[in-house]
Amino acid sequence: MDENAIELSSVTLDFPVKGGAKYLKEQITGRFRKEKGRTTFRALESVNLKIPRGEILGIVGPNGAGKSTILRTMAGIYRPDHGTVRTRGRCVLLAGIGTGFQSNLNGRENIRLNGSIMGLSDTEITAKMDDIIGFSEIESHIEQPIRTYSMGMKARLGFAIAAHLEPEILLIDEVMAVGDAAFQKKCKERIREMVSGDTTVAIVSHNMNTVKTFCDRAICIHEGLIHTSGTGVEAAIDAYLRILSEEE
Predict the structure, then answer these.
(1) H helices of 100-207, where?
(2) Which of 90, 213, 234, 244 lies 20 to 30 Å (CA to CA) from residue 55?
(3) Buried b / exposed e across 177-203, counting CB within 10 Å, b at 16+?
């Protein structure tokens, strides 16, 4: 792991908003800014982060801290106002139930669609099709439109697709929390297999046990800032729990 798969250097990201800070807390923290008649919300501020190739990084923090935002910035969905984001390798983002699915297409058609978006040929997608369907455990529903799927079924299929497209970078936003214990275990085992082949993984999770037992390292984000970046996970979890206790 002598090369970083992801590098964020002094990344700052502002979202335009209508109006301004509605609550006293927001006014005090100063995350709402007004310049030249334009009000913005500072989602990330001067974030510096390096993720070595093959590492599993946990990202923790309270709601609204910037966890999902930093994943989407890594994925290139959000472009920072300041700073740079560098990724090395094909990147897949798993965020939200059914993200990237077309509701009127069936499961098999959505597998082909997502594979083609990732740059796979039709031959490559066909070769992986049975493995993806088998992993998702929804074989009996694969010919049905995605709109008929439950949240859990969409999550299973989404993870199965991402895990078999062989990305160099896999970004996961709470998706592993969906499904029964057996499927969650299978997801973790699959990620371990991917990491052994140098896939880099960043996981947003509110489950501290998952972060503690599964991740090599963790960071805590609060109000758009990284509060910890130690070599283990305990410092990040302690910072997260301390923030929660202070907000009670």
Answers:
(1) 107-117, 122-136, 151-164, 181-196
(2) 244
(3) ebbeeebbebbeebbeebbeeebbbbb
Q: Residue 196 corresponds to which tokens in the numbers above?
A: 């052994």
- Model confidence at 128, in pLDDT bands (50, 70, 90)? very high
Cα(176)–Cα(183) distance, integer angstroms:
9
* pLDDT tens sequence across 170-191: 998 876 666 678 888 888 888 8
Same domain, residue pair 144 and 119: yes
The pLDDT of residue 23 is: 47
Distance CA 105, CA 108 (A): 8
What range defines the domain where residue 141 resides? 100-166
CA distance 54 to 125: 25
- Assigned domain for 155 exists: yes
- pLDDT tens digit sequence for 99-115: 679 999 999 999 999 88
8 close to 49: Cβ distance less than 8 angstroms:
yes
What is the distance of C-alpha 135 from the center of its chain? Answer: 20
Q: 77 — alpha (psi -120 to 50), left (phi > 0) or beta?
A: alpha
pTM above 0.70, yes or no: yes
**Considering its fold, how many domains does the chain have in total?**
2
Residue 2 has pLDDT above 60, yes or no: no
49: three-class secondary structure by DSSP: strand
Torsion sign over Cα 195, 200, 206, 212: positive
Residue 8's Cβ-count burial label (10 Å; 0-12, 13-18, 19+) is buried
DSSP 65-81: SSHHHHHHHHHTSS--S
